[in-house]
Design goal:
Number of strands: 12
Strand content: 15-25%
Oligomer: single chain
Largest sheet: 5 strands, parallel
Order of helices and strands: EHEHEHEHEHHEEEEHEHHEE
Low-confidence stretches: none
Strand order of the largest sheet: 2-1-3-4-5
Mean pLDDT: 87
Structural class: alpha/beta
CATH architecture of the largest domain: 3-Layer(aba) Sandwich
CATH superfamily of the largest domain: Response regulator
Radius of gyration: 19 Å
Number of helices: 9
Distance between the termini: 12 Å
C-alpha cells in the first residue's frame, strides 16, 4: 500500500514539528509548509491526498489558499486548522473550499480521526487499499477489500462490511499502535460501551482468521488500543 500524502500548512514551528512527527509515525507521508506564499507550488509538486490548512499564515492566509486550491482541484479534502471560534469564521472556512475544520488546541488522535473520515468520504482512502484487487498479508494470506474477502491457506472468509473496514484500518497501522477510541469513532461513529464490546468481538474474529500463521498478530495494549503485525 502506498502512503497517504498530507500537505500540512502550519506556521507555528514547534507545533508543526510535533504534529508532523506524529502523523509520520502513523505511516502518513507529510510535507510541511510554514509560509502561505509557498503553498501552491508545494501543492502542485507534492500532489497530496489531503490538505491540512492553518488559517493564520504569513503572506497568504489559509482562506485565500483554500479558494486557490479549489480553482485547480475541486476534490482534494481540505481540513482547516483554526484558533478562531466565531461561527462566521467557520462559515467562511467552508465557503472558501473547506470540507471540515478543527479548533486549536486539538489532540493528534482527533486530527487523525478527522483525516481518515475526510479521506473515506472523498474516496481517496480507497486509492491506498481498494485500488489493489488483492493485498498480500504475510506469506499465506490475501485480502481483497473490493470483494470483502480474506483468503487463507485453507479457506476464504466472506467479511462483513465492518470486518472489512476494520481490517483496512488496522493495515494502515501495521507495526504500530492504534488507539481504541480512534477505531470506535472511525468504524462505529462513537465510543459507547456497546460499540466497545462489539469491537472486542470483531478483534477476536480477526485473530481467529489469522490463526494459521503465528506471525500474524493483533496485540492488545491495555488501556490504549492495539498493536498490529499483519505482514
Amino acid at each position: 500500500m502506498t502512503p497517504i500524502k498530507i500537505l500540512y500548512v502550519e506556521d507555528e514551528v514547534n507545533l508543526g514539528k510535533i504534529v508532523k512527527e506524529s502523523l509520520e509515525s502513523r505511516s502518513f507521508e507529510v510535507k510541511m509548509i510554514a509560509d502561505g506564499a509557498l503553498v501552491m507550488d508545494a501543492f502542485h509538486e507534492f500532489g497530496p491526498d489531503i490538505v491540512l490548512l492553518d488559517i493564520m499564515l504569513p503572506h497568504i492566509d489559509g482562506l485565500t489558499l483554500g479558494r486557490s486550491i479549489r480553482e485547480v482541484d475541486n476534490h482534494v479534502p481540505i481540513l482547516f486548522l483554526t484558533a478562531k471560534t466565531q461561527t462566521k469564521d467557520v462559515i467562511e472556512g467552508f465557503s472558501s473550499g473547506g470540507n471540515d475544520y478543527i479548533r486549536k488546541p486539538y489532540s493528534v488522535e482527533e486530527l487523525i480521526v478527522r483525516i481518515h473520515n475526510l479521506l473515506s468520504l472523498s474516496g481517496r482512502q480507497d486509492i491506498h487499499t481498494d485500488g489493489q484487487s488483492e493485498i498480500a498479508l504475510g506469506s499465506l494470506y490475501r485480502f481483497n477489500p473490493r470483494e470483502y474477502q480474506l483468503h487463507t491457506p485453507t479457506t476464504t472468509y466472506n467479511l462483513s462490511h465492518r470486518e472489512n473496514e476494520l481490517l483496512k484500518l488496522l493495515l494502515q497501522y501495521n507495526d504500530q499502535t492504534i488507539n481504541r477510541k480512534e477505531i470506535l469513532v472511525k468504524i462505529w461513529g462513537d465510543d459507547t460501551y456497546f460499540n466497545s464490546r462489539t469491537l472486542d468481538v470483531y478483534i477476536r474474529k480477526l485473530r481467529t482468521y489469522f490463526s494459521e500463521d503465528d506471525n500474524m498478530q493483533i496485540y492488545t495494549i491495555k488501556g490504549v488500543g492495539y498493536r498490529v503485525r499483519l505482514s
